[in-house]
């Protein structure tokens, strides 16, 4: 069959956009398919999030990213990637979810919630933000529990439990505390995570030390009810009042989607997809991975700043084949 597109790119985040820019520069016929809005994961980040990376480390396609801050904010990143997409007139379909990738006569058929496309090559740049790591405890499905934190005002004057010790949890704890919430952190480890942003880590540690934010280390939630939660601590199980639980327990790629496409995952707990680190091609011929999806459960390994180069590797391999 004759493929309608040289490259089908699944995922309209920063790395998907970077792949499209490289494909366009190479003269390839491409299409981005994104199940949500443009840069959907970034859109769903907390409203006041500040990136760890500087703006130049978030640039794609050699398009300058100018920020008024030492570290760019979520609104600045949304503006930057939106302007990149619109100014380059990238070919993209939004709010269209890919449901299946099927080999078809030397190419691939990509089925979505709205249409069917054919492409010679497929790039999967779907990230990992859509599927939270569940605690699997009673009450986790209550409406008061969320694995996504957005705006601190909502939690003003409420008893809030924040689960986790890394950047998302620390931001949620500090922001809700400063909007008047009574915050308790539940942390499996012995301390705040070492990867927490260096300008934030002393803040949360001092708030815990002074007692403004209560923290239970070496602890975990055992059960959640409408007005209280049970916490397993080194001193035994305790019950405290609670209005909301913000479970910042991390996220994982859509492994089922990858396996359905024929991509082999490692048989350990990390579930790392099989791919060539030079070309980014998977065990499925002409299906490539780009961005954080490459890390499996190691979601802290790949970021925009160190995976944007995947786009150049992939398009170079596709051009070499041509």
Compact summary:
This protein has 322 residues and is an alpha/beta fold.
Can you lay out the helices and strands and say which pair or pack?
Elements: E1 5-10, H1 14-25, E2 30-33, H2 40-43, H3 74-87, E3 92-93, E4 98-104, E5 107-112, E6 116-124, E7 131-132, E8 145-146, E9 159-163, H4 167-178, E10 182-186, H5 201-210, E11 214-216, E12 220-224, E13 228-233, E14 236-241, E15 244-247, E16 251-252, H6 255-260, E17 287-289, H7 304-307, H8 310-321
Parallel strand pairs: 1-2, 1-6, 2-3, 6-17, 8-15, 9-10, 9-15, 10-11
Antiparallel strand pairs: 4-5, 5-6, 7-16, 12-13, 13-14
What does this structure look like?
There is one protein chain. The protein is α/β, with parallel strands linked by helices and 322 residues long. The chain has two domains: 5-131 and 251-321, 3-Layer(bba) Sandwich (FAD/NAD(P)-binding domain); 134-247, FAD/NAD(P)-binding domain, CATH 3.50.50. It is 23% helix and 24% strand. It has eight helices and 17 strands. The chain has helices spanning 14-25, 40-43, 74-87, 167-178, 201-210, 255-260, 304-307, 310-321, and strands at 5-10, 30-33, 92-93, 98-104, 107-112, 116-124, 131-132, 145-146, 159-163, 182-186, 214-216, 220-224, 228-233, 236-241, 244-247, 251-252, 287-289. Strands 1, 2, 3, 4, 5, 6 and 17 form a seven-stranded mixed beta sheet that branches. A hairpin with a 3-residue loop joins strand 5 (107-112) and strand 6. Helix 1 runs parallel beside helix 8 (310-321). The radius of gyration is 21 Å and the shape is globular. The mean pLDDT is 95.
